[in-house]
Amino acid sequence: MKHKLLLACFLLIGSGVMAQSAYKWKTATSGGYTYKYVTNDPTKSRFYTLKNGLTVILSQNAKEPTIEFRMAVRAGSNTDPRNATGLAHYLEHLLFKGTDKFGTMDFAKEKPLLDKIDSLYERYNKTTDPAKRKEIYAEIDKTSGQASNFSIANEYDKMMKAIGGQSTNAHTWYEETVYNEDFPANATDKFLALQAERFRNPIFRIFHTELEAVYEEKNRGLDNDSWKLNEKMFELLFPTHNYGQQTTIGSIEHLKNPSLVEIRNYYNKYYVPNNMAVVLAGDFNPDEMIGKVDQSFAFMQAKPVSQYKPAPEKPLTNIQKVDVYGPSAESVELNYRGYAQNTRQTMMLDLISSILSNGKAGLLDINLNKQQKVLRSGASYQQMKDYGVFSLTAQPKEGQSLEQAQQLLLDQIALLKSGNWDERLIKATVANSKLGLLQAFDNNGYRVESATNEFILNRGVNWDKSLSGPDQMAKISKQQVTGFAKQFFGDNYVAGFKHKGEDKNTLKVEKPAITPVNTNAGETSDFTKNLLAAPVKPIAPKFLDYKKDLNFGKVGIADVIAVQNRDNSIFRMSYRFDMGAWNYKLQPYAAQYLTFLATDKYTAEQISKEFYNIACSYSFNVGNEVATISISGLQENFDKAVSLVEHILANCKPNETALAELKSRILKSRENNKLNKGAILNGLMSYAQYGQDNPSNYTLSNDEVKAITSEQLLYILHNINNYKHTITYYGPQTLSTFTTSIARLHKLPAEFTPIAPAKEFTYTNNTSNQVYFADYDMVQSEIRWIRNGGVYDPTLAAKVNLFNSYFGGGMGSIVFQTIRESKALAYSTFAVYSSPDKKEKEYAMIAYVGSQADKMNDAVAGMNELLNDLPRADKSFEASKDNALNAIETSRISKDDIIGSYFANQKLGIDHDSRIDEYNGLKSLTFDDINAFHRTNVSGKPYNYCIVASEKKVKLEDMQKFGTVHKLTLEQIFGY
Q1: What is the pLDDT of residues 534-545, one digit of tens each?
Q2: H helices present in 331-443, as ranges
Q3: Which CATH class is domain 770-974?
Q4: Whole-prediction pTM value?
Q5: Which of 68, 315, 535, 770 has its CA 20 to 30 A from that of 57?
């Protein structure tokens, strides 16, 4: 959710690209409908209000034959009843279960059983005696099994898959529930018919297994230290408001006592057209689309809606402290309560967040991160409807206390208040925001997210003010910022201290006894049959022809690959080296060191400020096999940006103090990696795939890190351009103009220095099951299966694609339906036959279940059944095949992604767009082909089980049933 909030704030401060006076509301009529729009809006959004009160926001963008969709409801956890928190989130899950027309084979027979389940939950909700509750739940479980004889699990997802949807999802937050999809433009009629039916009369079926999935979601949150810290801090920031008094996912007490009657009442109260918006962006005629949307949702009837109206919070007048314990790395966060949306104070806090932290030249960037006074730090402003939250965060470096890190953050606030900062930061922030929006508004997903957020916060009436935000911000003076900061930042914050240690208060939602329900995956409702039978005008795929779509040239001895940007003045270029950490272990450390180095002309701080002031960026990224120096920005600043990068690489000077701090930070980061369960699981996977000598632990030892010298790292930096590299360019210049420019700026040797051969790793070849286990203090267990599948074969591309779609990709897949929908064994699960990115590498069969530790045995057994025996569901297979074909037909690779596609295929030994072969191969595939693929590559094979869990909660003897157990130390996993 944090990403969404930052997106909203970015819109507020970054959307305007014209003078303020250019953004004015106008009214127009077209296609028989009246709408409002804002002049000079780069998204050309139209805002309609239909007769029943439904808001419709349309943004036409015909660059790809696809459409992004959001159905937004202005109701979330704020409007949950106090005695039933988590209700809005429950409802979100249930909107995927179908109606009386789909998701069922015989609703007349199903309904009495569903009604009985409703009444049983009401009894269960009001019963406190444990024995009686157990008895009632057993009846719920039994009746749910009977009802499942008539239900069709995930029929909604199968329809979306069949019409070409690629991103079915939804989320609930404080004041919103939003359902998101994308679909091919030629499937508009089918899509709208499905969405209209979906919201017409949702039926809450297959509830108790879905409830268990929510339990699992809650338990996963209990294993997330940052989630726990955020919840505790919000309780103090908002002692009255529901932002702090009830969580989106709900309390454990309320999760254990759901009421389907309350959920239905909530739906009837808030899911009404005058409280909802349909938002669409993509390839459509808006005059035609509005008529179709109106016709589809005309059945909805407006009702009075009472929104959440909290009492105002009293001002915070003292510093409050929160201490949270857990196994992850320590951190400190300072939270200040902000203001309501769309206020001048909100704009000021958005600006201040960038003055403090913008990734380049903010006070935290320069004074803390650049000087390595902490491991990392940042600032952000998150905006909700009634209040915002201004956050400062830091991870302490080695030997530093949380209190010391806190004081360093406060020191930057003091600098801000004193006015001891460069006023040019305001102008640069505006320029960088405008640059970002040039790219962002080209994306349909960003368009619908921005418009949806506008609707949720203020029904879209302030779109003009949002668009003019940066121009307003540009008028703010340094004196106004310092004056505001003096008033806002005081002893009025909550300090959250995340300590490393055991959380003795950790609870979990206990699992009830659940009998697997029938999914009836092979059945299809009449509604679905009729919907999918309707003909559509096909969309022809567009494949790349690298000889035509790319421009190939030379600069000296370096190859140049370019694509001309005909849309705007943005450029992105790179020097791409076919070498990385597997060639030179020191190279990643040289790239990190570069950030802190000065030259004979600039300090390290001045370099960061220079780039920020001209709204350009550069980075040096080192992967295992490829290193890239990237430069981007506006073409008018191309020469400045490239010249500065060339100057830095050629003239950077040693800084022994910075190197010493860098080594210390590297060692501290390594210790933190050992506290990260995701990093541990990835390390286990690498160990299982390659053995003791593997990519995860192929790194310098701690002693080798301590021995690194400036001379070693500077040699790499000063000589980097002497190694073979390809120059890529996406920008407004023609190839000839670009090559002339770059030849003048980028000095090349007469011949390239030979590159050291890359480290090679040997794949394991297991003949029996092995278990790789790492102990971690957590409620859940994380289990991954992996086995190597042989060297890359381009002729398998279509089969691999279709197998993944059918077997383990998305909510309509066999794995998801069985593990989550039928057996309620996990909130998160998937399985994929992973293709390598290089022709010399091997495939890997990977499966995953994240479940409660006490469900691990059942989860493993459930996944193993699927790995050994592929269930047949013909309708699901056809939907998967249609989806795979649709994805290729509607995908459009453009801009510098064309260059990326070229390099990706080159690594696989393919000299053309590989989608051509994949698309042609998909057409003739049958279930028998995929079943044969499963038998050959997946079924009956030995697997490596990678398990991260608490040894207090999982038993060694249970793991021994899976295979030979190897408990790995963190040093074995990480190599240090």
Answers
A1: 999 999 999 999
A2: 344-356, 363-364, 402-418, 424-440
A3: alpha beta
A4: 0.92
A5: 535
